[in-house]
Automatic annotation (TrEMBL):
Residues 258-425 form the CobB/CobQ-like glutamine amidotransferase domain. The active site is at C334 (nucleophile), H418. One of its GO terms (molecular function) is catalytic activity. Pathway: Cofactor biosynthesis; adenosylcobalamin biosynthesis. Belongs to the CobB/CobQ family. CobQ subfamily. This is Cobyric acid synthase.
Amino acid sequence: MVKGALLVAGTTSDAGKSVVTAGICRWLARQGVRVAPYKAQNMSLNSYVTADGAEIGRAQVVQAQAAGLEPVADMNPILLKPGSDRRSQVVLMGKPVADVDAMEYGELKDMLRATALEALTRLRKQYDVVVCEGAGSPAEINLRRGDIANMGLARAANLPVIVVGDIDRGGVFAAFYGTVGLLDAADQAHVAGFVVNKFRGAKELLDPGLDMLRRMTGREVYGVLPWLDGLWMDVEDSLALDGRRVTSGAPHGRQTLRVAVVRLPRISNFTDVDALAAEPGVTVRFVTDPAELDDADLVVLPGSRATVADLAWLRERGLAAAIRARRGPVLGICGGFQMLAREIVDEVESGAGRVEGLDLLPVRITFAPDKRLARPVGEAYGEQVRAYEIHHGVAEVEGGEPFLDGCRVGDVWGTTWHGALENDGFRRAFLADVAERAGRAFVPAPATDFARLREDRLDALGDLVERHLDTDALLRLIDNGPPELPTLPPGAPV
């Protein structure tokens, strides 16, 4: 039985580390291997609450699902949630412990590194294989001294590293070569080879470049993963929101329902709308301009890590006025719900004190020092709803019709519950109500099973790994650890 660990790094953010990690986890689990995912340090505003009330990155939750596991805090011991360009909330083993800038964070590094390594040690004792995901790029040389998630982790835990590159962006050969070349000799010794991601076209045209890369670096190319349309996952990086996410169109005889999601500067848990995008006949796009709301049947104000600052941005952009003037459905989720309130009192997140909300719901929001992390169960439209909560803002509802833990007034709904739209019966009933109020002849598809769809996409990732990567070589790498490889001096091929 294979036993060991592997670190999946990337040439850039959004190169495909998360999906490759998930694919390897699914492939190994299908071989009967007890496998777990791990990411030492994750910077993301997409998070989730585990069964025991810990907050971790959403990508590790999906990777745990790929492995057939319930997620736990050890899988993502350090989560950084940016609240501004300079400060982030530090979530350690699932609980917030500090709000720091870069210099203050540096003072915590020794403690954080020890905690991260302890978590990895526990996972390695419990599972046959741990597939670790890196963060950003391992060649961020300005951050190497304090690195916890990339080569610092590989060195401390003696992990072999494969580097994923997104060829669809271009420049992947330079990125691979440069990644290795920028590392010192001790770090280079852990980089076993490369995986090309998102390739379109004839592979024989790529092969000469792969052969040159092997000769120039002395390292393996473990495979080329083809581009696969529609394989979106619960992403952690807002880079993935560039462009519109749209479905394939409405079923025959039905109109399309158009959803506009406001892309806030500090948007969080935007995976809430993935279930809408998966619904046949629903188009979802992320918008930043008031004119883009004009033809929307539903406007969604999503979560935010900086509610007061993002509310000010809404006003500056003219979006606040456009939302207030709407004569059609609006849904606010968590931070978006808070913005719809009459007033917000925030001495915790922004320190702004009392701030006027959009006054579309009879609610008063008060930010509390303690973050609420929960997995609530409720009912709406006669359907059971399972969800999760992550927020400092406490809602005092002073009127309206009850809606989950929030309220509804006319065409405006608000709730702090994330993940509610993943409940199929509730989603269909909600969309039917939205369509009626928007005057659209849209009928939700009764067969859409969002949980099954996610499983199918995890299976597709496992298939990609099995069919397009050298899985025998990966198993040897996991079993044997870092191979003996030549050192690559910067700019001087081996």
